Amino acid sequence: MTRLIAEPPDAQAQTQGRFAYTADLWVPGMQWCVLVRSPHPHARITGIDTSAALAVPGVTTVVTAADLPAEAFHGPVVVDRPVLASDVVRFTGEAVAAVCAETRMAALRGAEAVEVEYEPLDARLDPEHAFASAPLHPDGNLFRHVALRHGRPVQRRPDGSPVEEVVVEGLYDIAAQDQLNPATDAVLALPCADGGIELHTASPWPHADRDQVAQCLGFASGTLRVVPAGVGGSSGTREEAGMLAVAAWLAARTGRAVKIVADRADALTGGGHRHAARLKYTHRADSNGRLLAVEAEILLDGGAYATTSPEVVGRLAGCATGPYMVLHAAVDVWAVRTNNPPAGTMRGPGATQVCFAYEAQMDKLAAALGMDPVELRLRNALSTGTMLTTGQVLDGPAPAGELLRAVAEHPAPESEPAPGLRRGTGFAVGLVPLLGIEGADESSTATVRLDHGVVTVTCAAVEAGQGFTALVRRIVADVLGIADAIVLPAGTAMPSAGPAGVGRHTMLTAGAVDQACRDIRARLLAPIAARYGMTAALLDVRGGRLVSYDGLVDLPAEVMTEGQEIAATAGAARARHTEPLDDAGQGDAYPAVAFAACRVVADVDPETGAVQVVDVTGAYDAGKVLDPVLALARVEGSVAMGIGMALVEDLDAARLHGPIAWTQPTALDVPPVRVAAWHEEPQPGIPMGAKGLADAAVVPVPAAVAAAVRDATGLDLPSLPLRPRDVAARR
């Protein structure tokens, strides 16, 4: 493909503060809505008095659960979360009422005037306590349990002699990490002349949001339209459908536009964050370093409602033993209901947490064996044709060893640590399932229209900051020789493309766009090829020129498209069929798996515990790099996220001390990312062969950072984030 520099169309607006987020939208005569939220993590609602709120000047409506349909519950996987709590609140920040007013200030005052009587109940904030406690919800406290069993214990060598095992154990804790999107959640609901409701919101999957809102309010799905607006960034779950449902209900009830904007405190307590996890591992190897067995118990804090926890458990199961061949695995994974805010899907879901634990185990095992940690990993690395512990054979690229070699052999930083600092180096390798898993029907459709040299692309893939729009324009330029294209905004007026994330739009939707463009090109080339006495297959578009295989034809690409009106729709971009994991965690569950390796060099101040990441070198299983600039940008964002998870981000601490206490890395905390290798081996069955990069790239970073700090300090460091008090020299 032509190597042009691509830039997302909103990049400058976002970096210069001119980007219009959903919270910036305004229409004449709109009302403001503020949600009344519970101050308790667990309590019974014994009464709600709205009379004082209705008396506040400017307040027009107050809605409670009693005003909504009885089926006003929602959830992307399990429908268990009320739009507004009616009898019990199950986490701090759960919405119990909504106040609508002429101004935001009036809505805030009205919300303060709503009197809610609570009877506090025992809260279960620790997943281990919730695991064995009385049910916190009619559905119980267990969202999902996978009991993965693979192979059999190896006790004897082929010659009959007993195997001498080296055994290492570890107990690890990981705090919840929030996405902290650039703008907080917001929605603007507009009544339409046809009686429907239009919801403008930062939705990465408008069709799912539409269907959830329609289901819980009893609306026909055709009466709701969701228009993604000002997404600006999304690394997983965004707005929960309850807020959208409240806005839609109020807009339908009042016949006026309604706007809701969550503040940062609401965003931190609203849910959608990475699951906090507790992981207990035992690794067994023979004296040569061959992994004989991995046993693990992994407990995820799913929060008060299921959201995507069952899916995260399914993804995690295939990653729990890492990118390594394991003869025997016994892994139990639970996602448990607690009285914390609901967790969700965040970049590298499940895979990032387990990578921290299993890579710490590999370093322990290397030390116990007296072996180089890189060599130990290479001896056990998965490759094409080997098997995950779910029983799935990796028939696509599985370059775990190649990626690790690339980062290990890449030149180390030439700088020296400042006086008094200790320098350490850590390695990690990770893998993550891409696309929908366990039987999810993954497909995408795109329509490309050429009208007198102007290309318009229509598809439902949301530009969520990942650069998809720029990628579409690159494809149009490469295939049709047209330097720009109009990419129409996504929405529910077109067939679903699924949510942004886990490589979906890079792997499927971009492939649909490419296929539609190639269909158009084939039809346009046929008469030109006939004119020169050759077939269309002998002509190509390169660098804006139409050229033949032998160079005899060399024309501007415009001769192919000028004056033409033609359109093509491609809908065959579909992931291969998969199946759910069975009771033993076995099954062909993942349409594709991506790998990444990372080497981190970090300097540690032993007196203060301060950690500075000096160098990050990575190698990535890209399938095919469609755009080198966008690929590097995706990796850089994931590295920043991984460093934040490793060193500073702790959602539980932020909730205790308020949103002002939230810390995340800045550009000064993240060094330039050096790419040792792009492994470009096309993924079979994917239209363009490319894999999504962001999810795989984040997975090994926290583990590698922790390994570097352990190398510098000699400390065990079994928890994330690495707090200075844990890293500082003990007195």
Derived structural class: alpha+beta
Give the count of helical stretches: 19
Q: What does the overall shape look like?
A: globular
DSSP strand tally: 29
Instruction: Trace the largest sheet across and list its strands.
Output: 3-7-1-14-11-12-13
In percent, how much strand structure appears in the residues? 25-35%
| Most strands sheet | 7 strands, mixed
Q: Work out the helicity level.
A: 25-40%
The poorly predicted ranges are 1-5
Could you walk me through the main structural features you see in this protein, from its secondary elements to its overall organization?
The chain contains 19 helices and 29 strands. It is α+β, with helices and mostly antiparallel strands and 731 residues long. The longest helix is centred in the last third of the chain and has 28 residues, at 504-531. Helix 5 (206-217) links the parallel strand 12 and strand 13. Helices cover 27% and strands 26% of the residues. The model is unreliable at 1-5 (pLDDT under 50). The chain has a 7-stranded mixed β-sheet, sandwiched between helices.
